[in-house]
Amino acid sequence: MKRFIEQVAIVTGAGSGIGRATALRLAQEGAKVVLADWSEDGLQETVSQLPPETACIERKLDVSDEAGVRALVSEANERFGQIDILINNAGISGGSYPPVTENERADWEQILGVNLIGAMLMIKHVAPHMQERKQGAIVNTASVAGIRSGAGGNPYSASKAGVINLTQTAACDLGGFNIRVNAVCPGLVETGMTKPVFDYARANEKEHKLGGRCELRRYGKPEELAAAICFLASDDASYITGQALPVDGGNTASL
Ligand code: NAD
Questions:
Q1: Helix 17-28 / helix 40-49 crossing angle, nearest 10 deg
Q2: Which CDD domains does UniProt cross-reference here (predicted)?
C-alpha cells in the first residue's frame, strides 16, 4: 500500500514512540517527511530507520515556541513546495498525577503549552499553506484521558480534552478549504512516555495487568497507532473530519 506518494507530511514528536512509528509508516507509503522533535538523538534514531530513498528534513523543535514553529513550517514549504499532512503528536505527561488541590500552576502552563498550545501553533502555521492548495489532512494525538479524566484534576487530561475540542474547532474552520482535521485517542501504548509504568510493572511481575482494563486485554503498540493515524491522514478517510477516534483496545467501550 502506497497512499502518500508525492505527499509531504510534517510529524511532531517524531523522535520516539507513536511519532516515530507514524513517520516510518508515512515514509514506507511514499511520503516525504519533515520530522520535528525536542530530542535530537531521538530524531537521528528515527532517520536511521527510514527507507533509504526517503526525502526528509529533521529539525530540533519545541512546538510551544511559535518562532520555531513558523521557521520549521516555512522551511518545509520552501524545500518541498507543499504540505499535505500534519501529524500533531508531540506531547508530555508531566509524570505525576497529584490531586487538584496540590497542582502547581507552572506544571499546567508547561503541559498545556506543549500538548494544546503547541498543537494549535502547528495548525495555525501549517493550515494557510493547505488553504492555498485547498487540500490537507491534520491528525492530532489526543488520549483516552481527554475523553474521561484519570484520578485527580491533572493538566494532562485537561490538555487532551482541549486537543479533542481543538480538533472539532479546526475541522469547522478549515472544512470549507477541503482540509480534514481528526484526532486519535490512544489508550496505554508502550513508548518513551510510559516507560516508567512498564519498567515498574515488569520489575514487580505485573506486566500481565497492563492493558487489563481493555476489552482486548492487552496494551497497544506504536505501530497500531501509526496505522490509525495514517488511515485518518489518507484519502481512505476522505469523508471523516472533526472526529476523535479511540485506539485503545476497547478501553472506553464500557464507559
Ligand atoms: P514518547 O515520549 O515516546 O514521544 C513523545 C515525543 O515528543 C518525544 O520524542 C519527545 O521528545 C517529543 N516532545 C516532547 N515535548 C516536545 C516539544 N515541546 N516539542 C517537540 N517535541 C516534543 O511518547 P508517545 O507515547 O509516543 O507520545 C506521543 C503522543 O501520544 C503524545 O501526545 C502523548 O500524549 C500521546 N499518548 C500516548 C499514550 C501512551 O500510552 N503512550 C497514551 C495516550 C496518548
A1: 30
A2: SDR_c (cd05233)
